[in-house]
Design a protein that fits this description.
heterodimer; A: mainly alpha; Cytochrome Bc1 Complex, Chain D, domain 2; 3 domains; two-stranded antiparallel sheet; B: FAD/NAD(P)-binding domain; eight-stranded mixed beta sheet; 13 helices
């Protein structure tokens, strides 16, 4: 990728103004290839393609936000219902500027604050790729938010507070790998969209970047190193996880299984290694445990031995590549227990990828354990293996009712 | 009128072990493959998770994973002059159902047959003379040799992560393994499983008696394993719920844990579950299959055209579907003509229950896996001189106790009341200190002229088609074999220090209500002569060359081992023949 970029820049310098350098060019094989790669890295398909659909990028997938449902639009080149008659400037304004074609502001379910780190050339390449996709006539009503949030004018204040468009500039004191990783993580990869804590208005808290957030019924755990949840993960551990969805410690399930399937497993080894290099240079706090009730822990330990140890083993270490190591799984050693409770209640299906096709699944125990038992086993697992705070019976009750209300 | 679906390159009937292997191999060859499975889809975490997989009542007693006789069944009789009656509750064997087939509920005992098993008639005739064999015994050579199958046994073992100790590595006999086995090209992919006390004690006594005990080859993992397809299995936890059960923690080799994750990623493979194939369709010549007709749960009939048909259902369903589809000449035992239904066999098993002093022996029988145990092979196949004994065949034997599950494991000495306080006291006293290996003597059943499958003249299934009729009884050869083997087996338990050894010989007549493995074999057998076999050496139908029939239905007779290793090796062997030979020049591969 990088050599492609260098060549592209060299070409620009040689040809000068004779070449239109910043227009989407579907005739340009290299631009289409690069755009395809960036569309994967930016995980465009995750929102803009309905899972299982034969019509990629034709929109229609509802995106759950803390404020209501938004529906991803059709971004195929259909002229009426897609973006076929948009100008390049209009496309760029949407992707990097958070502005719709009529100038209205986009909701940040479209992660334009991250995408603004990309260059215009990046965005034009993505468009060149999108232009090669079969146009689909599919009108999507995007905004289903309640009043007053359905008024896009409310986004003026949001943008002023949280949107600082800025192209990525390499830090020359860091390695090329680090810079590439930072660009992918903070730019197209938009990792912080899930993993960075948000304000009550849904804007990133920059001081807590990548320290974990809860959305769509899942905890996106902290992915910081230093003392953070990935403290014990090596660069290779992160790389293998992103490439295959599994490593010696953990398995990708829930939203992350989609990220792996549609995005990180399609990246080059160099690029996932670069992301790992960057993440290993981030820093976050250790999860804070607090002393749980001893009776609860011993009840949880008994449930664990009975129901969990067959796979996760008595010592919680699991089986590398198959069953997660509970002491090294970021979702366990994180303050918010949403994922732990959800997985215990309803089970989880991990991702199947080419190198790791198994896709092992965990059964749900919600039918069998009551709220007190769920809380006990979650408390035991988090305290004993993860060093995370206890879970109360009311947490478990709330998780159960939240889960019952969910459609996914 | 069935509705016609778009044509496929390959249609596979039944998605168990051999169906999965065929599907994977043929999809790998670039063919467009559909598998049609009568039963439901099954996944580990949602269908038999570890929290309720070990439920003896649900799975063992109430047969959760098996075909429901209400859907279809068989009729049975011992002798040709009897009227067969339908089986309404499974007993002697357990017809599998659903994705994964028998591979979901097996014990994972993963054996290879002996080299001499594949050339049985030739071998026995050379050693003992043709007159040594009973007149009505119809054993045959297979048309394929052990050496030809070796690479395919190897592939299956590495797919499964079989745990075991090689006894013959490229001709070199190794201590601790089975010295009688055919030469293997590499060691087992995983070391043997750890053995519980009862098996260890059995091995010690066997060794002292001059035998060479070895661990039973097991498809239950002795350690974590990633197979050549990238699919991972976890280590066995010795819970003792293997046979009749699905494995909840990815430790038992099954299609689900070894091959389906890879198969399902292939864009040129699809499967339809809950769809029952009613017949294989033929063109007007009757020499070419055009596809299959199946019915879904709504009662809709569909025609699935295909260039190649793979029949990979359970033994007796393979035979029945051939008969119903009028492929091959039905076997007539009176005239001794025809092939479909011929050489049908099962297994000759027996057991010994041994009672030890509870103060000195604690065996903890619940620490077990389905293929655990120490075995000896001195009395299998033709590993011993049958000349003075007056029978042929044999089997492995071993302390292969697969469980101590509470409903069925209540060993009490003879003379104990069948219920009440005395019975309870005896169960309590003996539960930990008795050994009951289940299929401890695992003997061969050879084929006979009057043991076969045909279509029942009276009983019909829900579609109005005749049920398959089994005519089966034990012959003197097998009963003599069993008596000899059971006595030898009991001697070892005596040598272990048992205070009482109770022999349970296999006796005639064959009892359809008593479980005696699910190893039905034959009925659509492979061979070298179209007048005595349904299939050629590549499992290709002699009559319809674009039909291949996999599974134990192809065994000309059954050996003294569990059949899965061999039927899987044959599936790989046939798949290779299709890829290397048939696809280059579709047609009959053997000129007979």
């Amino acid at each position: 990728m990088r050599s492609g970029l260098v060549i592209a820049i060299a070409m620009i310098m040689l040809c000068g103004s004779a070449v239109v350098v910043d227009a989407a060019d579907v005739q340009d094989f290299a631009a289409v290839e690069r755009g395809h790669y960036l569309a994967d890295a930016a995980d465009c398909g995750s929102c803009h393609t309905v899972p299982g659909s034969n019509h990629p990028f034709s929109g229609g997938r509802p995106i759950e936000t803390p404020f209501g449902i938004l529906v991803a639009p059709n971004i195929t080149s259909d002229r009426e219902t897609g973006i076929g008659d948009w100008t390049d400037d209009e496309f760029d304004a949407a992707v990097r500027g958070g502005r719709s074609r009529n100038g209205a502001r986009l909701y940040p379910a479209m992660p334009f604050p991250y995408y603004s780190r990309m260059s215009r050339q990046d965005v034009m390449d993505i468009r060149a790729y999108l232009d090669t996709i079969q146009p689909v006539r599919h009108a999507v009503q995007v905004n289903r938010l309640p009043f007053p949030l359905n008024l896009r004018i409310s986004m003026i204040a949001w943008d002023a507070l949280y949107f600082k468009p800025e192209e990525f500039h390499p830090d020359t004191s860091k390695s090329n790998d680090w810079n590439r990783g930072a660009y992918l993580t903070l730019g197209p990869g938009h990792c912080g969209a899930c993993h960075t804590p948000k304000t009550f208005l849904g804007g990133d808290k920059p001081s807590d970047a990548l320290r974990g957030y809860t959305l769509q019924g899942w905890t996106a755990p902290g992915i910081t190193s230093g003392k953070g949840p990935l403290a014990d993960w090596s660069i290779a551990d992160i790389e293998v996880y992103l490439r295959t969805g599994h490593n010696r410690y953990a398995a990708a399930a829930g939203l992350m299984s989609e990220v792996v399937k549609l995005s990180t497993s399609k990246m080059t080894n160099d690029d996932v290694k670069a992301i790992a290099t960057y993440l290993k240079d981030t820093s976050g706090p250790a999860a804070q445990s607090s002393a749980p009730d001893k009776n609860v822990v011993s009840a949880g330990a008994a449930i664990y031995q009975d129901l969990c140890a067959a796979c996760h083993r008595r010592d919680g270490k699991g089986v590398p590549g198959l069953f997660p190591d509970l002491a090294e799984t970021a979702t366990v050693k994180t303050r918010d227990p949403t994922t732990v409770l959800r997985v215990i209640l309803q089970g989880a299906q991990s991702v199947s990828t080419g190198p790791e096709p198994t896709g092992p699944a965990m059964p749900g125990f919600g039918w069998q354990l009551n709220d007190a038992q769920i809380a006990a086993v979650a408390t035991y697992v988090r305290d004993h293996f993860g060093k995370a705070p206890p879970v109360s019976e009311s947490d478990a009750r709330k998780a159960r009712s939240d889960e019952a209300a969910r459609t996914d | 009128m069935p509705r016609k679906l778009p044509a496929k390159d390959v249609v596979i009937i039944g998605l168990g072990w051999t169906g999965s292997i065929m599907a994977h191999e043929l999809a790998d060859a670039g063919l467009d493959v559909i598998a049609i499975e009568r039963g439901p889809w099954r996944n580990t975490a949602t269908d038999y998770p570890p929290d309720y997989a070990p439920d003896e009542l649900r799975y063992r007693i109430r047969h959760e994973l098996f075909l429901r006789p209400e859907q279809t069944t068989f009729t049975f009789r011992n002798k040709m002059d009897e009227t067969a009656l339908p089986i309404r509750s499974w007993g002697a064997f357990m017809p599998p159902n659903g994705v994964g087939g028998g591979g979901v509920h097996w014990n994972a005992e993963t054996w290879r047959f002996l080299p001499s098993d594949f050339i049985l008639r030739t071998h026995l005739t050379q050693r003992y003379g043709a007159d040594f064999l009973p007149q009505d015994m119809t054993i045959q050579d297979w048309g394929v040799t052990y050496d030809e199958l070796e690479p395919y046994y190897d592939r299956f073992e590495y797919l499964c992560g079989t745990s075991g100790q090689a006894g013959n590595l490229n001709g070199q006999i190794l201590d601790g393994g089975n010295p009688f086995e055919g030469a293997r090209s590499r060691p087992y992919p995983n070391p043997p499983q750890d053995q519980p006390f009862g098996a260890t004690l059995f091995a010690k006594a066997a060794r002292e008696l001059g035998y060479k005990p070895f661990p039973q080859p097991s498809g239950n993992m002795s350690r974590p394993y990633q197979n050549p397809l990238g699919v991972r299995l976890g280590p066995c936890t010795f819970c003792g719920f293997c046979e009749w059960f699905g494995c909840g923690n990815y430790s038992k080799a099954s299609p689900q844990t070894t091959i389906l994750p890879s198969l399902l990623r292939k864009p040129n493979f699809i499967a339809r579950d809950n769809s029952e194939v009613k017949q294989i369709n033929l063109d007007v010549s009757g020499k070419r299959a055009t596809g299959v007709t199946f019915v879904d749960t709504d009662g809709n009939e569909w025609e699935q055209p295909a260039d190649l048909v793979i029949l990979s259902a359970y033994t007796i369903f393979n035979v029945q579907l051939l008969l119903l589809s009028k492929i091959g000449k039905p076997y007539d035992p009176t005239a001794n003509t025809g092939v479909i239904g011929r050489n049908f066999t099962h297994q000759t098993i027996s057991d010994v229950t041994s009672f030890f002093d509870p103060a000195k022996f604690i065996f903890n029988p619940f620490i077990a896996s389905g293929a655990i145990g120490m075995c000896i092979d001195e009395f299998n196949g033709d590993n011993f001189d049958h000349g003075p004994l007056g029978f042929v065949g044999g089997g492995y034997m071993g302390q292969v106790q697969t469980n101590g599950r509470p409903i069925e494991t209540a060993p009490v000495p003879p003379g104990t009341p069948r219920w009440g306080a005395q019975w309870k006291k005896a169960v309590k006293e003996n539960y930990l200190s008795a050994l009951k290996p289940g299929t401890g003597v695992h003997g061969s059943m050879y084929s006979y002229r009057d043991v076969y499958v045909d279509l029942d003249p009276t009983y019909k299934d829900r579609f109005g088609r005749p049920l398959a009729r089994i005519t089966m009884d034990f012959h003197d050869n097998e009963l003599k074999q069993n008596r000899f083997l059971t006595d030898k087996f009991a001697e070892i338990f005596q040598a272990m220090g048992a205070k009482q050894v109770v022999k349970e010989y296999r006796k005639g007549p064959y009892d359809i209500t008593k479980y005696q493995t699910t190893h039905l074999c034959g009925g659509a057998i492979m061979g070298t002569d179209p007048s005595t076999s349904a299939l050629n050496r590549y499992l290709q139908s002699w009559d319809v060359p674009n039909l291949f029939v996999t599974g134990a239905s192809g065994f000309p007779q059954n050996a003294g081992y569990n059949p899965t290793g061999t039927l899987a090796a044959l599936a790989y062997w046939a798949a290779d023949a299709i890829r290397q030979k048939y696809l280059k020049n579709p047609g009959q591969l053997i000129n007979a």
